[in-house]
Amino acid sequence: MVRRMILAAFAAAILFMSWTSLEAKAEKLLVVDSAAIFSSSEKSDLENTLAGLSNQYSMDIVLVTTNDADGKSSRDYADDYFDYNGYGIGADRDGILLLMDFDNREVYISTSGKGIRYLTDARIESILDDIFDAGFGDGRYFEGAEAFIASTSSFLAQGIPEGQYNEDEGSNSISLFDGLIGAAASGASGLGYFATTRKRYKGHPAPLAFNFRDSSLVELGIASDNLINEYTTSRIIPVAPVRSSGGGSLGRSTTHRSGSGRSHGGGGRKF
After folding, report:
1. One Pfam annotation, family name (predicted)?
2. Are 71 and 101 in contact (CB under 8 A)?
3. Does the residue 99 lie in any domain?
4. What is the pLDDT of residue 86?
């Protein structure tokens, strides 16, 4: 009897954990249309496509629309929505979120984990180009969402660009203290150079070694040049090829810290 009770309790625990896991998975929607811009069929199509893409690359690829960003910028809203709603797969919370923000009038792409490495700054700009080229700015929101999925899918298929690197956005900025120190140092250096130069040139003017007014002779004549022949030579100047996204700044993924303290990449565009 005791053994049966233990087995029954163990089985119940397994069922409860499985049910909880399935419920949590079902609640994690990949299309959250709070702005109600998609029809039921459009929303279903987007959800199914994103689910397939997410499973293929083991990351959450999410689309969110909103009319109220809670007073936040599009970047903060997108990052926080991703962080605080359980999105992201694995220890690094791999994922990509597209926010259509009708409050701030901005389309924003937030990346996390390996999503940061796949979607460099240059690739994000290219995806935004595709979204707006599809007519998003003219109210063709479903076409814009489809363009996001197609463009993102293409870059995911290409893999992480060779030479890709993450760079925190704060690494290119200087503090106010550093700026003041630099200004003071450059000012002192400039004043020192000015004083030295002024001292070197200070003194009485030396007399002219040659009296050019009394000793010069100028004779002006008439000269003319006749154009005999004229030749024109032309050649094609080769254009340097555009570098791929594997090197230089084209391979950079600029990152920042969200409100939760996690690292995100991303970029947006107003409409």
Report:
1. TPM_phosphatase
2. no
3. yes
4. 96
d(CA 227, CA 38): 74
Residue 177 included in any domain: no
Q: What is the pLDDT of residues 89-140, one digit of tens each?
A: 999 999 999 999 999 999 999 999 999 999 999 999 999 999 999 999 999 9
Q: Which domain holds residue 75?
A: 30-171+249-270
**Residue 242: band (very low, low, confident or very high) from pLDDT cuts 50, 70, 90:** very low
Residues 11-42: tens digit of each pLDDT: 555 444 444 443 444 468 999 999 999 999 99
Hunting for tokens 């962080």 — which residue is that? 83
φ, ψ for residue 256 (rounded to 5)? -150, 170
Decide if 127 is inside a domain. Answer: yes
Handedness of CA 244, 247, 250, 254 (dihedral sign): positive
Give the CATH number of the domain where residue 124 resides: 3.10.310.50
